[in-house]
């Protein structure tokens, strides 16, 4: 079908208030809003001021009342334990109400904070919805985060209660959460009143008398007693949750998400951007601890009346590179949203895609990638093997939903490899030089969004308006700073090349590491890669490449490295000064799949570095250090 994108985007530009007023009709409101946008409220304005609503009501109760009571709402699929649990909308409501009753009996009420520190279990989503039901503000902290990181978040959010579990499961290991939680509470100045602990059979924990509450027992008692807790009306501008940006040091940055604008934006994206209909099965293979988990495991699909999949496992190793295809086949998934890292891992283990034909993927129609830059080779591999559109898109924890995408629901535009698509309604994206002037199309610069930010984006940071202004607004007045570098082409497609601190300066030439990574990943033997800039006396900085080879590659690594260097010289030119590639077994990543380029750069430059709180496996940094020393780098 012909795409309606330009018509819809231009319609938003002509009448932004009318656009969001129309989108807001898809949400049930307890009392109508006074204004769609109040430019005088908050730091840059607030959406749907004066309106009252409830996110849990819209995600659960209205579907139970409106004919979806017996439809599956949530599928918990654990590839690690080999178990699947399914909840209809009616069953999900029953579980949420019982847990809400437990919270209420512990004195949790509207405006109180609750930290959720849990693995990928159904109870994590239920806990989020239970908080939303009574207007408590949840803050999900990625399960297994180190105690210090959890403690900083406890001190910033000051929760009344913490909901956690005895353990999390990783391929080949069990991570005890209780010792980490106890140590965090010991470290923190703020002391929560109690902890609600879900005991998992894989590793049970000791509960402290008069402090720790057994989750299953408490919920079962409320369920048996026929507990009923109605949804509490909250203002559209009241906070639904706080999510802390990953890898922060010192005072963490608490991104605030409101209730009204968040619901309106997410509901609109499900059909228009992701092309999914109510009743269909949507799967975001992320973690509830990250923004993708909030927006597209829990809230987006449930607001839209979809069935959502909450998956505990990895793309490879649980048990093999076919696990994603099993989940899609078994549950009838129509759209998958995951990180490019996941697909690079699958491609690295199964370069020929031999697992794919073993599964029935007949219902599967779109793959969405975001979280890291999606290199064209990975996209082409996925297109060729899956024979469905592969849609790269770009957004941030701060925005809560895509800033740019190729909108499946409005009709796909031509795919441009290397671009995460075109701006979505609400996002007037510009590219500026460091002095704040717009640069010509096709020129690399700072990617910014003209204020006001649309519905669903952060209104501010938790208890830190001044810090919000300083971090996002002051550098380019009138604009929100994304801290990404990129360019816009003549047809309005954005190309996000790197974080602004990943632009390297080689002898006065500003070069994007992302563009070099694109070339490295084009080599047929390369599964994954990263490029960093390292200090050089003559040129200021020079690029250094790291490559991980596909499974089964037996060629001489020196020959492959020489070929990769030649490829960069051929495609980018001698200006890149690209001379060194190091072959390694694996790249250091955060648990959400982001490559830790900054830490690698510090190791190579012999700078002081701290172990990143979000790292997936610390041992990888020792491997990197040894590989660099073997080449005389970082000595």
From TrEMBL:
E.C. designation(s): 6.2.1.17
Domain AMP-dependent synthetase/ligase: 64-452
MF (Gene Ontology): propionate-CoA ligase activity
Pfam families per record: ACAS_N, AMP-binding, AMP-binding_C
Residue ranges occupied by any AMP-binding enzyme C-terminal domain in the UniProt entry: 516-594
InterPro entries associated with the record: ACAS_N, AMP-bd_C, AMP-bd_C_sf, AMP-binding_CS, AMP-dep_synth/lig_dom, ANL_N_sf
Keywords for the protein's UniProt record, in alphabetical order: Ligase
Organism annotation: Mesorhizobium metallidurans STM 2683
CDD domains (alphabetical): PrpE
SUPFAM superfamilies per the UniProt record, alphabetical: Acetyl-CoA synthetase-like (SSF56801)
Protein name in UniProt: Propionyl-CoA synthetase
Gene giving rise to this polypeptide: prpE
Recorded coiled-coil stretches: none
UniProt superkingdom: Bacteria
Enzyme class per UniProt: ligase
